[in-house]
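Thread title: Can someone regenerate the structure for this chain?

I was given the following input by a collaborator and told the matching structure tokens would be attached. They weren't. Posting the sequence so someone can regenerate them.
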Amino acid sequence: MHDIKAVLFDMDGVLIDAQEWHYEALNQVLLLFGYEITREMHEDRYDGLTTLKKLQMLTNEVGLPEHIHEMINRVKQDRTLRIAAQKCFPNVSHQVLVSKLKNKNIKVGVVTNSIRQTTEFMLTYAGLLDSLDVLVTNQDVREPKPNPECYLKAMEMLGVLPEETVIIEDSPYGIMAANASGAVVVTVKSVDDVT
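Best answer:
Regenerated them for you:
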């Protein structure tokens, strides 16, 4: 049994209750073009994927024109930031948890399928960005979750082994990536489970 040297958190649904914000922002834009991701579709297949992956799936499944992906993605990111600015606040229990981990000399990181701009914005509003030892977004890897590349990169940056790392995840794709990394995986159902 190895000592735990690092804890890596997913962001959306684990540290920040932003899953609904992403869902709402994307659908606001999709509806302008006559498309929608239903709640059932989101929960069954889309939750935890990058926006661009979701758009590609919509193209494959219902014919969303590929040439509008970039525009939809850009507008969706802007709307997500606007929602986050209204709804994202520090969670004291998360701040205390991160502080306790750091006091035990355990490195702390966030590994997310969100883009860097949105991630840094939300983590700043949540009062957590300055406490992190590592931050890996979907823009820092070739293959986002469910591929384990993001978690392996974070471990490499921290200089820790998978068996010395705990990953906190909530979505099926994130859990797949975490398990494939070889780390110890703790699954949660919501941000309220992270204390």
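The first helix runs from residue 19 to 32.
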